[in-house]
Amino acid sequence: MMIRTARLQKALEHALRAPSVHNTQPWRWQLQGDVIKLFADFDRQRPANDPGGRDLLISCGAALHHLRVALGHEGHDAYVKYSPDLGDDSHLATITISDAPPDPTTARLFNAIAHRRTERRRMSYRPVPKPLLATLVESARRFGPQVQPTREVREAFAAAFAEATERERWTPSRTTELRIWSRDRTRSRVLAGSPSGLDPLPEDGPHEDAAEFLLLTTAEDRTYDRLRVGEALSSLLLTATNAELATMPISLDPRGAVLRMDEAISEHPQIVVRVGWPLARSADAPRTRRRDLTSVLVASAS
User: What is the pTM of this model?
Assistant: First the structure.
């Protein structure tokens, strides 16, 4: 089947709304007929804060899922081949448009793309109902990662952030890099005062409201696993947005190593999501800027 290029470009514009580490938007796309290729943009990697590229790959996976949601809204399913080019580490996935009907669960997430925001402020004291929390967990598990509330590993979670705080206090490059990528952000501190993370927490800390913390883990830690975590993250965030919940992803680098050593976590920690009911005044959370589609499109080989 052939889909007009304009429609595919429109779907890609929606994919650009995906969350990314410090809004770096580290992806590139290539259109070839009914095939879309996703590439990592390693020039936008943060070597001091994300030396292994975990956050970069999770960000690209989130963009991939946003694209699948947008295509589903248009009535198209897609077949994804991960890491298709063994000779090119930047080529993360090839998406082939299918004439099969889209997954209705995925397609229903489309409207949430325009409304999702990262909420860095304190959330409500109203707890998230357990059935709704279970729905969020299942929305992420569909893509492979396991999800668990961090209250079950809270001591390890707190220790990881405390250690990261001390380490970053003596690593100026981390703070400098954060300022470069986040200079248009609202001033705030992260958990335990750490200057890094996918997004900062409110100044009055994470324990001043009823927000939940969900930890996404994987059995292995390959490029494929990190991409799938990004898809799971996107699914969780959009599902929460449809339920009118507020969300904030939190990077685990360099905290993941500390969490990995805790006996309560048998898998590789990838990312944490803070989720709760927004306060009434939180409805005006601004949208962060996105790059133009033309700046992330790669010319097709002739």
Answer: 0.84
